[in-house]
Amino acid sequence: MGIYKNDDFDVEKQSWYHGFRPRRDVEPLLPEPGDFLVRATDARTNNVELVLSVKSNDKGIINLTIVFSDGKWHLGILKKAKIVRFDTIPQLIEYYRGHRISSHLILKRPVARPDWLIKHEKVTYNPEKDKLGTGNFCDVYKGTYARDHNESITVAVKICHQGQAGKVAGGATRSS
């Protein structure tokens, strides 16, 4: 298994983890067979799911749910006989970079999260004090984006009403 730093086990610290991104946004990012990334989604259920999106040799983009059960992570679609379980998602990804998922699917090239894709935990707002306005689908708040190196920027934070079209993936951290 090798020697790991603490960050090696944190999925959000991995370059191939994109956070909340819809399927339609990642398809153009995976042009070659074996290109992959991991993303979060709540499109199928009201719960957050992690999805491994990978370009196959012959079937386009394949989206595989990453499941946590019995204290371990595994790919959700594999037959019970083929399920391999891991303590962390980075271990799962590393394993499948060297082992085929199926005859037409192997992880070759991780696609890094772009710099402009802001991590949700870096944005804070106060829903009681910072509301700027409201519309039919969303509320807008004044927030703060904590950039690297102790720099912060004032930003607008759009939070969609529960159950509205587009379901903007949950986002910023509320501050008290």
UniProtKB/TrEMBL annotation:
<dbReference type="InterPro" id="IPR036860">
    <property type="entry name" value="SH2_dom_sf"/>
</dbReference>
<dbReference type="InterPro" id="IPR035849">
    <property type="entry name" value="Fes/Fps/Fer_SH2"/>
</dbReference>
<feature type="domain" description="SH2">
    <location>
        <begin position="16"/>
        <end position="111"/>
    </location>
</feature>
<keyword id="KW-0067">ATP-binding</keyword>
<dbReference type="Pfam" id="PF00017">
    <property type="entry name" value="SH2"/>
</dbReference>
<protein>
    <recommendedName>
        <fullName>SH2 domain-containing protein</fullName>
    </recommendedName>
</protein>
<dbReference type="InterPro" id="IPR000980">
    <property type="entry name" value="SH2"/>
</dbReference>
<keyword id="KW-0547">Nucleotide-binding</keyword>
<keyword id="KW-0727">SH2 domain</keyword>
<dbReference type="GO" id="GO:0005524">
    <property type="term" value="F:ATP binding"/>
</dbReference>
<dbReference type="InterPro" id="IPR050198">
    <property type="entry name" value="Non-receptor_tyrosine_kinases"/>
</dbReference>
